[in-house]
Amino acid sequence: MKGLWLLLLLAGCFTICQAGQMYKYKDANGNWVFSDKPPEKEQDFSTLQYTSPTKPTSKIKLYNIKGKHGYTLYAKNAFFTPIEVGFTSPFSQKFISKVIPARGSTALLESKKKAPKLNYRLALGDPKSVADNYQYHAPFGSLKGHRITQGFNGKFSHTNDYNKYAVDIAMDVGTYLTAVRAGTVIWVKDDYHMSGTTSYFLDKANGIQVLHDDGTFSSYAHILMDTAIVKEGDKVALGDKLARSGSSGFSTGPHLHFSIIKNAGLKNIAIPFKFVDNKGMVFTPQRAMIMVGANKP
């Protein structure tokens, strides 16, 4: 199960944070609870500091430059991945789509007048990229068996294009998550501490995304607050630790929501993929399967 945390990505935003306090304790069944309220009955607990988002700041900057014959509107991309931007020209009324390189700038349009503020659509990645059918190692290093609780086309929450080919893997809070393939970290969010199943939590899930050589990126959602080991722009190798698992955002319990994402033309979608185990066996993930962590090369 995965909250629509990519909505934050598609808005092109990161957050400035402010601190608060939360409580950590075990319930009657011995499961860890993270809450902004202390336990109702008298028992041992610890307090943790957490951060909550405040003012968003855009990762896409649009700006006009005046030349001899008019103005050129540019877009500057602060992401560590190419992005595709689509918009309707305020002058010709034609729809324009441009790919902006990672950490680069691209001219969007030229006009005699200064371009007004634009409403635009955004997707991470280059739509011309082609997935290379890579076989992915397990996204965790624990040798303990972990059950897949929801697979491709899962009826609970894997029903739209962004989640259709995702898998949910149940695991204890705090399990180390590892890179399934080498790449560049393009997104890190680990500032949220709670979970729930109402619409309020849809954009709250913490997560990490890693861009790969074929232009796809692996997505790890619901990570535990303040456990990200990597930062945006970091290069990671297969098996490198990324963060610890949790249950942040839209979630019914501790698990990892994992998927492979690509840009299908101004739209990020999940694509089918296969895992490979430590014995070299290749398999398509299915509900109720037990997965064992990957050995780091």
From TrEMBL:
Residues 164-264 form the M23ase beta-sheet core domain. Pfam families: DUF4124, Peptidase_M23. GO terms for molecular function: metalloendopeptidase activity. It comes from the Bacteria. Keywords: Signal. The keyword Zinc does not apply. This is M23 family metallopeptidase. It comes from Colwellia demingiae.
